[in-house]
Amino acid sequence: MALYNISEKILTTLEKTSFTIERLQERYDLQEAIKKNIDIVAPGCLVISEEFSDWEDSRRRIDLLAIDKQANLVVIELKRDEIGAHMELQALRYAAMISTMSFAKACEYYQAYLWKHGIDENAKEKLLDFVELEENELADFGKDIRIVLASADFSKELTTTAIWLRDKGVDIRCVRLTPYNFKGEVLINAEQIIPVPELEEYQVRFREKRTEQIISSQKSERDYSLYKYKGKTFNKRKLALELFTDWINKHNPANIDDLKN
């Protein structure tokens, strides 16, 4: 996508640049800026921790950990390169590692995050206000983990993986961050490329319909036939067991060879 500046009835193409050329670092520039404006990559979310690493036997860190309005945890990974190297694999690991996090633990992490930034407020109250729920309504807290990947660009392998994961029901999104240089200033165009916003609702409906078709197909393939035997009603499996039991009682075979004969 090209961006233009209009001045005195003249359109001028903005010069595309890179985070490396502009000497913008991943953690100290991009992450710091995005966490203060999280809607750029994850609309409707609240950051509750950064560089999250509270687990045993691992030094891995989640760039930004957030929560959305449905009380789902959101793993946000950032890269400044143009391929997003292996970030989808990292994010999947992180999603699995936080899948058992309780609401109480999330409050602890958020409280530490607030104190770190000099904010003296109650984390639990802020989280409950954000999701507009009572604590007793959060029994399924963190049931679904969302993933947001933000990078200067993405490799074909990564986008193919992301599309496949979405098709399997994983809520993963890719946001392209394209930097431009304009009169010595760096402008960033943030564009969600997976899923394509215009197609997202259609894709959700299509996925739900296909799930219904699969369930319906599975049901139609099952044999629900019932059989009468000795005054009782049996399905096919239980009828076979009953017939076999009666045969055993009648013929009293001594060994497996008697059964074969």
Order of helices and strands: EEEHEEEHHHEHEEHEEHH
Shape: elongated
Instruction: Kindly estimate the percentage of residues that lie in beta strands according to DSSP.
Output: 25-35%
CATH domain class of the largest domain? Alpha Beta
* Helicity level: 25-40%
Give a short account of the largest sheet: 7 strands, mixed
Class inferred from helices and paired strands: alpha+beta
Just name the CATH architecture of the largest domain.
Answer: 3-Layer(aba) Sandwich
Using the CA coordinates, give the radius of gyration: 28 Å
Low-confidence stretches: none
Please report the distance between the alpha carbons of the first and last residues. Answer: 77 Å
Quaternary structure: single chain
Our count of helices gives 8
Number of strands: 11
Reconstruct the topology from this structure.
Blueprint: E1 4-7, E2 10-13, E3 15-16, H1 26-36, E4 45-52, E5 62-68, E6 73-79, H2 87-97, H3 103-116, H4 123-131, E7 145-151, H5 156-167, E8 172-182, E9 185-194, H6 197-221, E10 226-229, E11 232-235, H7 236-251, H8 256-260
Parallel strand pairs: 6-7, 7-8
Antiparallel strand pairs: 1-2, 3-8, 4-5, 5-6, 8-9, 10-11
GO molecular function: nucleic acid binding
Protein name: DUF91 domain-containing protein
